[in-house]
Design goal:
single chain; alpha+beta; Enolase-like, domain 1; 5-stranded antiparallel β-sheet
Amino acid sequence: MGGVRRQTHWENARKQGLIAGANMTGKKRIRYEQIPYFWTEIFDLRMDLVGDFSVLPTRVDLQGTYGKKKFVARYYQGDKLRGILLCGQPPREVESAKTQLRHALGK
């Protein structure tokens, strides 16, 4: 995840605004650590995507089942975790995925 990647999802804009506002107060400087994230809903299917999906993975680990529309797929480039796709998962699992990826990337 080297370099800056443009993200236009409203969730990203909200977080940037909160950090920019906090930094303008001058009380404490907060560094913006971007973990790419977006979500989408297609009919009855909700998917949350955390990480960088611009590079083809060398390995994908799947937990759950496609048929039940409830699964987590972890995308690796070599041994490095690059992205996590969550389908039909509760918000706590999405936050856990963000934390896992942040640790994997050393952020």
